[in-house]
Amino acid sequence: xxxxxxxxxxxxxxxxxxxxxxxxxxxxxxxxxxxxxxxxxxxxxxxxxxxxxxxxxxxxxxxxxxxxxxxxxxxxxxxxxxxxxxxxxxxxxxxxxxxxxxxxxxxxxxxxxxxxxxxxxxxxxxxxxxxxxxxxxxxxxxxxxxxxxxxxxxxxxxxxxxxxxxxxxxxxxxxxxxxxxxxxxxxxxxxxxxxxxxxxxxxxxxxxxxxxxxxxxxxxxxxxxxxxxxxxxxxxxxxxxxxxxxxxxxxxxxxxxxxxxxxxxxxxxxxxxxxxxxxxxxxxxxxxxxxxxxxxxxxxxxxxxxxxxxxxxxxxxxxxxxxxxxxxxxxxxxxxxxxxxxxxxxxxxxxxxxxxxxxxxxxxxxxxxxxxxxxxxxxxxxxxxxxxxxxxxxxxxxxxxxxxxxxxxxxxxxxxxxxxxxxxxxxxxxxxxxxxxxxxxxxxxxxxxxxxxxxxxxxxxxxxxxxxxxxxxxxxxxxxxxxxxxxxxxxxxxxxxxxxxxxxxxxxxxxxxxxxxxxxxxxxxxxxxxxxxxxxxxxxxxxxxxxxxxxxxxxxxxxxxxxxxxxxxxxxxxxxxxxxxxxxxxxxxxxxxxxxxxxxxxxxxxxxxxxxxxxxxxxxxxxxxxxxxxxxxxxxxxxxxxxxxxxxxxxxxxxxxxxxxxxxxxxxxxxxxxxxxxxxxxxxxxxxxxxxxxxxxxxxxxxxxxxxxxx
Length: 711
Description:
- By secondary structure, the chain is of the alpha/beta class.
- 33% of the residues lie in helices and 23% in strands.
- The model is unreliable at 1-50, 66-93, 588-640 and 680-687 (pLDDT under 50).
């Protein structure tokens, strides 16, 4: 029995410091035959010993994969996570080869420069930086690299502005962010504007003590997958110091705050917004100009500061200190502007120009080429009658984007007939007017590449008329009214992905327009917005008009006007309202303790109960409905008889919107009572929805004229 205990204890692998699992298991295999020599059948022969070694090797490889997955895979991630490339066991997650273009003397590298925003975001947040302070960035980065990089015996291209040369990494200094390398012989390199020999390269490496920055290394492609994480980590390091880190971050006064939240996230978001054409070209140019000026000013300030002696009281040093304070103030002003532009909510503040300093107004005429007869017509029909005053000047442009970027408050853009291609979003921060000189099909603006939105309006009063917009790959819409008022008249909107979006605080007036082709809703109306649609055609979309849920107590009720629109041939509903399901709403109400019923609320407010057929009569917003009997002429509507089956959706839409609004008001009254407001001021509850829904026609919509989407 003692022998058995001794045998079992010997069979348990005990690993010494520095000993691998494989070594421990192999050494243990030699002692499996413990005990007496009588049980000869228990001895491990040579053949079984070889099999055991193979099993141990397989076990060791599996353990390495597990460790690698644990380092790079979040437990909360599911299979379709954007960071699935960290998991090497998943099909299709290996890094791809980046084939070298041109000179084939150098081997291919890994393709790492096409990572998505979320992939970089997660790498910096979860693995590289976490919640470190600015002063801790280098230490956190070194710790991250030490866990991920292969320490030696891998090849890479040392890439500089002058040459690319093949080297082998023999050691990594993580704190210095440098690698010790040796030249791969025979020499394999590609030079730009110079000649490079093996002797000259060795001399250069000796001068650098055989050390090169990790950011300048690109790992040579290897199909085994052993160096995928090394290549990926170097890409994150390279990208960080090229696009995220600033020279002045080390001297940040807010060192007690999370560096990732304050700096990394907004700068990363801005980089991808610029990459995906979500930021106007003028704003991009201004940002990089500010960045270059701030970098130059910081270098000048640092040089001046380093030249001042702390113990000296000479007049020259005193002058230098005054100059240094002036440069410091200039640098801080530039840094503040950069922070504003890096903030997605504030960056458009700098895009607003306001009135022109001279006080005049400009008419911007857009045309690639024009004829004399077109100019004569322009002068006779437009410029002469409307803009002949002394305050107007005329400026000519070849592209609509250039004209809009050059506008100040009150300017006018006139676009002559033609087909204009734009490659970035058209942002309108000032109150201007954009009109096509001709029919919409004659004045066409087409967006070719991908971006958040096509036309983005934040101006107080913007008007667009007689223009056709053709959209490709816009994520957020062919037109997005973020704030201010946008008036569209006689325009054609040819969508490919999403349609018109009216954000909270936005005000859209859309008259006599034609919108079609959206893979989502033709028009999306957010809570708190104002949307007036008269005489439009909305067709061949996924949904015609989508009204976002406004039932939450914090949301403001939208104000909607829909008159004489023809909503037809949409795949789903003509109009759809997104709202919580009855079960979800009941849970929300039950969560509020001691929430009074509708009947109790009426009693407490001293109102008379009026019940009809068991239903409680409640106050609802006033519905303002235009009809054909109105005495004043209505320019946008024509009174003609429409079959009832085409207009029956109007009443259904009104009933649903009013019911949702009334329910919201009851919840607000309940919330006020919880806060101790026993007699609520009617003005506090006057978020009444101005609803004018009249004579809209609904034809051949796949699921009917009106429906609700419950969540």
